[in-house]
Specification:
By secondary structure, the protein is α/β, with parallel strands linked by helices. It has helices at 35-46, 68-73, 92-101, 121-130, 168-171, 182-190, 195-201, 240-247, 250-261, 270-285, and strands at residues 6-8, 11-13, 22-29, 54-60, 80-84, 106-110, 115-116, 135-139, 142-143, 158-159, 163-167, 205-209, 215-216, 237-238.
Length: 290
């Protein structure tokens, strides 16, 4: 059973294991409701992982009593609790703060909508990072997309921040901008001073790892079947964007594939088509003036 939470240096630590080296850090955002956490927690318990680690849960924007339902799910389960006040900073600022505050050798960061898809998932991350002198960060998925005029031009390789493993010493060398908007978070993920690019400037390489434990370098990311290609059959951590690709029709999937890997998507944006369809339907559903 988890030990009673205690105050320690501004942190509430629930049942912390002795001298852990790896923190699997999952963000729980109050405004998302409990459903995404249930889905994540079920996947965490379902998939076998032999590598020793702590599960660190970041409770974001929780006030007194807001966590009752979450704690009932966690009863008799050992974890570390970290409280992040307010709802600012999106996912990256809580990651940064936890990585600066908690004393682990490695941090595996998983966002609110991340779902574990296979056994030995953390071992795959760790083996790829710890056994290579070149590796500076290992992600579950990456992209070459340039999603904004302020991004570097295509190809713009960057690891996605829904699931990645990084060493403490590397994380603490990264310069983070203040994360106030989604555009700020995008800049840290895919901008000219992204996490990936900063790590490459350190002389280290970013890799994508698949569910067989194979690590893929930048040039081979499209072949990894982890993001918008090959039915994403190699994906070890899914999220809302990978699930949107899975549920899309062939037109949508082709468009998203091109965004990620060719830089030449069709002008017939299926998302604009979808929005237009709803605008037309709302127009004809408007009550007529008498």
């Amino acid at each position: 059973m988890a030990e009673k939470a205690v105050e320690a240096g501004g942190l509430r630590l629930d049942g912390r294991m002795k001298s852990p080296s790896i923190a699997v850090t999952h963000l729980i955002r109050k405004s998302n409701g409990i459903s995404p956490f249930k889905t994540f927690f079920d996947s965490y318990r379902q998939h076998h992982e032999p590598l020793k680690h702590d599960l660190v849960l970041i409770f974001k924007d929780f006030g007194p009593g807001d966590d009752i339902d979450y704690l009932s799910l966690l009863e008799d389960f050992q974890y570390v609790r970290y409280d992040y006040p307010g709802d600012g900073g999106l996912d990256l600022d809580p990651y940064r703060e936890a990585g600066q505050t908690l004393d682990y050798d490695y941090f595996c960061f998983l966002n609110s909508f991340s779902v574990i898809e296979c056994d030995n998932w953390l071992s795959h991350f760790y083996n790829g990072l710890a056994k290579s002198n070149k590796a500076g960060i290992i992600g579950a998925s990456g992209s070459w997309e340039s999603s904004s005029e302020t991004d570097p031009p295509f190809p713009n390789p960057h690891l996605r921040t829904n699931g990645f493993l990084i060493a403490k010493d590397v994380l603490r060398q990264i310069e983070f901008i203040p994360i106030n908007t989604k555009d700020d978070a995008r800049m840290m993920e895919s901008g000219d001073q992204s996490i990936t690019r900063q790590i490459m400037e350190m002389g280290k390489s970013p890799y994508v790892v698949d569910r067989d434990g194979v690590c893929w370098n930048i040039e081979e990311w499209p072949k990894s079947s982890t993001f918008r290609n090959g039915n994403q059959s190699g994906l070890i951590i899914s999220d809302n964007r990978t699930r949107a690709f899975d549920s899309g029709d062939s037109w949508t999937q082709e468009y998203l594939y091109d965004l990620a890997w060719t830089g030449k998507p069709s002008n017939a944006n299926p998302f604009k088509r979808h929005q237009l369809k709803h605008r037309i339907r709302r127009f004809f559903q408007k009550p007529r003036q008498r």
